[in-house]
Amino acid sequence: MPDTRFKPLPWTRLQRGVPCYLPKAAPRPAVDIHSPALAVMTDFQRQPPVTVSRDTSLEDANRLMELSHAHYLLVADEQRHLVGIVSEAGTRGHRPLAAAHRLGVKPAELVVGDVMVSKHDDAEVIHLRDLGSAKVGNVLAALREIGSPFCLVVDHDDEDHHVLCGVFSLAQIDRQLGLTSPTEEIAQTFSQVVSSLGH
Questions:
Q1: Highest mean predicted confidence (pLDDT) among 84-93, 147-156, 177-186
Q2: Torsion angles phi and psi, residue 165, rounded to 5
Q3: Banded pLDDT at 121 (limits 50, 70, 90)
Q4: Alpha carbon of 179 to those of 13, 28, 68, 170, 174: distances in Å?
Q5: How far is CA 196 from the centre of its chain?
Q6: Which residues, 6 or more positions from 111, have their beta carbon under 8 angstroms from its beta carbon?
Q7: CA 115/CA 81 separation, integer angstroms
Q8: In whole angstroms, what is the distance from residue 68 CA to residue 42 CA?
Q9: Which residues of 103-137 are buried (b: 16+ CB within 10 A; e: fewer)?
Q10: What is the per-residue pLDDT for 139?
């Protein structure tokens, strides 16, 4: 039985011929290098990450990144365990060609698992507990040291398991700082890292 204590809200039908637009994403607040680090972290509880399986084709992964305006995808298994990360740099250019040569397959036959960065081998993370007094400048220094345009943030549950809670993205930080392109030094360093991973 419906609850009769509440009066229905007024409602109407959409008017024919009147455009109805999808909403624009709310702009992030402007920051500077002295702002709290958490102001530039993408919170996965508010904005869930885009995930794929390791069997996803590179073509589908690239299409998903384009549609979701993402520079990376998280690779998860059926139990929602993180198994790796794949970025634009990993799905285009030198790395997939090197992987295809190594595996003896055509580049079009590659899947995400062939080119992803394994969480156990190469995935750097920042711990949420270290962000209490951290500033945006500290995040940029960490990305520069890692040589990556993004870094995952993890928390810990009661059993001390890692729980993904967010990500720092250089592209997002640049937008909030009012910059138009990533710091050149970080971009060059990351390019070198990606090239080395392809060997």
A1: 147-156
A2: -125, -10
A3: low
A4: 43, 13, 21, 10, 5
A5: 21
A6: 54, 55, 56, 57, 58
A7: 18
A8: 14
A9: eeeeeeebbbbbbbbebeeebeebebeebeebbbe
A10: 96
Closest CA to 54 of 114, 10, 101, 3: 114
Would you state the structure tokens that stand for residue 93, as one six-digit string? 């250019």
> Phi and psi at residue 118, in whole multiples of 5°?
-70, 140
- For the whole model, what pTM was predicted? 0.71
Token couple for 81: 């365990």
As given in the structure block, the two tokens for residue 9 are 């809200």
Structure tokens at 166: 């967010």
CB neighbours (10 Å) of residue 66? 10
d(CA 187, CA 178): 17
From CA 85, how far away is CA 152, in angstroms rounded? 10
Token pair for residue 61?
A: 């992964």
What tokens appear for 21 in the block?
């637009």
Q: Tokens in use for 199?
A: 């060997």
